[in-house]
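Entry: Na(+)/H(+) antiporter
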Amino acid sequence: METSSIALAADYLLETIAIILIAGMIFGKISDYIKIPDVVLYILAGIILGPHALGWISVEKYEITNQLILTFGAAYILYDGGREIKLKILNKVKVSVMLLATLGVLISTFITGYFASRIFNIDIMTALLLGSVIASTDPSVLVPLFKKVKINNKLKQTIISESAFNDAAGAIITFAIIGIISGKSFSAIGSTLELLKTAGGGILVGLVIGYISSLLVAHKEYAILKEYPAELSVATVIISYILSNKLGFSGFMSVFIVGMICGNKKVFKFYMQDEYFTTQHRFREVLTIILRMMIFILLGTHVELVALAKYWKGALAVVLILMFVARPISVLISVSLDRKAKWSLREIIYLMWVRETGVIPAALSGMIVTLGIPNAQIISSVTFATILITLTVQASTSAALARYLKLDEDYK
């Protein structure tokens, strides 16, 4: 009986992967034709294939399979995003990045939460929980986006770095509020220390594993695995994520730092041979495309259409407040405190607009529903409305806004 269940689970995994890949290719072609971001079409594909329509992909039936795809997909895309960061440029905007990822998340949480409590007539702690869930941005959207939109490196790497670092802050704030709602004691100092431990530990693990990985493929004497850079990158992502989680640190933070170290090998006097570098680069591009298909199609299967239909008016109002009130205020305050970065008005406006929501908020929302938190369906509905609207509206207009503000270097 047990063997039969394992075989069924294995068959389901293969079946799910095949369905996702075929659907991803079809909807990707449609995306190219109608000029809408592919992730929006992937979510639509997930809704169609999910339990509320065709029922070809069932999230509830094999939760481990779905969680595996979402977790590894988000981790590898974060790693890939880390590789896009150049340390020399990041050093110039590190204060802005840290403020956006911490203070900015807190400001967004409180502004969005306050208005959500009024709109849905719910208690303030539940409303703040809603605000914290949707406060962070999504590297799995932003990393591929800025491979196509050629804005200056300072702005691009601030946005990508913020999206990686604010996931940890958003998750910790969410867990702290859940603790309060559950009747546990809350300590501002304790929560701050927890944030420092979670993020700092993830950074430390990422530094160590990233350095060892680079040593093994790019050092003159110790590059014993120089022929396997792509294979090692996958193993490194998994090891750093698992090790960080087991130590109580942020696995997502860890893989992002690993990517940063691996993407800045020359800083450490490491050099890869061209043939191996090209192989790894092509592998990363293909794997990232596949993982994006899997992540967003699976997210589409999570959408609760009944709840979304019930709360859509309030959800739309909250999303608009997040986009046009909370985000602009949080960005303005955060970057204003970093005088050394010398942000221009055009760059600040662009930072205010680019804040797509995706994988991590969806995962937090799903966890809240599982825990049975009061008004969890409202939180879930607002989360998916935020994902759908920010991806449809903001992701699809990011390139046009960059051109309008004369930030796109291809149009200067």
